[in-house]
Amino acid sequence: MSQLDQIAPVVRTITPLSFRLRRLTSLALVHTVLMAGAVFMLLPFVFMVVSSIKPPGEIFEATFRLWPRNFYGLQNFESALTTAPLLRFLLNGLIVCGGILVVQLLVAIPCAYALAKLQFPGRPLLFALVLLGLCIPVQVPSLPLYIAFAQLGILNTYLSLMLPFFLSVFAIFLFRQFFKSYPDEIIHAARLDGVSEFEIVWRIVVPSAWPAIAAFSIFSIVAHWNDLYWPLIVVSDTKLATPPLGMMYFADSEIGSNYGALSAGAVIITAPLVIAFLIARRRFIAGITMTGIK
Amino acid sequence: MRTLATPLNAKRQKWVESLAGVGFSTPAFILLLLTNLAPLVALALLSVTNYELGAIDFSFIGLKNLNTAMSDPVIRRSLTNTFLYVAIVVPGGVLLSLLVAILVHRRTRTRGFYEVIYFLPVTSTLIAMATMWQFLLHPNLGPINAFLKYAGVGEVAFLSDPRLVIPTLAAIGIWQLIGFNMVLFLAGLSAIPRELYEAADVDGASNPIDRFFRVTWPLLGPTTMFVIVTTFITAFKVFDTIAVMTRGGPMGSSEVLLYAVYLEGFQYFHLSYAATLTLIFLAFTLAFSIAQTFILDRRVHY
Question: Are B174 and A81 in contact, with CB atoms under 8 Å apart?
Fold first, then answer.
């Protein structure tokens, strides 16, 4: 083995053709593996899209064909949209994700700044609690929160969908890390100029933290748009269903056996985030790299 | 106009900072208390009582719930199934995504193309995609079985065979998180300096497998550790695919811990029992969440 390795460079210089051939074979192998994986990854997407434009009879034919013989897309999307309030589900997703994100940022940013740059009583304790919070999965407080919401009579409201997530310990943690590297000199100079702490946070520090805020926003929206567990617990009113919950209702309803319409519904539910991802691919990937957790 | 900091000013500044610090963190602190810490205490109290929703009085029952849970066949099955699921998803989801990341990393023109494809499941709503998988895997109508029959393998009851249901769900779990892990590995791979590979080349480690074990694997250690930990947590929380595709069936063969918590707590309203199950769930994830927080704390530098 080691002998082979030693002569390998020599062989390369003598016969560039065989080297190029070897390179080409390894390249072909790499793409074969990646494409095989890609087929597995894309399988449900392709099936979803083609089923959404096929007539019911063609979806489960003995011989699977990709393209429909009869285009049935309009009928499928029409029956999906008329039998379930899919656009309403999307709107609910937008309201819930938007509401959660706005409050998360408003609450976490000042707190993160305080933890990073201000000396105040209780700071070590607060940071310890933030770290403790990071170790508790979101499903853990569900039961007591559900009981409390039931007592308060706020189940089946937008508020109940959003309230448990208003505080993101992860946002505090991420922003604190980011703010810590912000130069102290600038903050001192601003103080000497008489700029209030409130203005320092929102006018000076926040604009420089834009990459972290974008990364967290993507993380938060993807997490809450796709969350099923909590909406399933607090919402029983179809009108308030978020996209995943709506999809579940839809699949369980009578039309659930109309595979074409159900596929069309799945297209409508998944489209907004997938389109956003395709447009802002770099931002999504940079965001995941920075936040690193789900 | 800038003024020199006098002792008086410094004292005033200290006071302003304390006030601002407390003011800025109070909303977060109150919310943290209400949505995170108080529920944790409530959960612990709930698990040692026999409280039911709307009940006026309840009494202390100690660890009775825990004993019930330990001898409850449903819970034991749920735990075994969860472990089996995790045992497939963690190695599968970590190693496959590492392979994909290594192969994608070297591509220049096709990198974006593969990144999009592998990452797509991460952004798409799992509930919708789970419904599609259910069609694809349908025993007599689905295209996958049509293909298997055509290929001479015969019909495979992916979701209705008790022995196959967890592996099938695990494959879907892996499908969902490969892209996410791939992105983390890609970031780790770009952080490895090229010179190290050149040095390895000079040392005689020129074939890809030698290079992987001499350079990539050791230097990717911290990333791999982090990916393993997050994958474990994600896998342990499996819920969506089970709620949509199998509801714990057939015959309890896909019951998992979080689904049991959901059923006991929010379907049967056995609140104190569900509280105990939640604590069991927490106990299993805690070590990994602590590890994750620890790594995050060291990893995130700007």
Answer: no
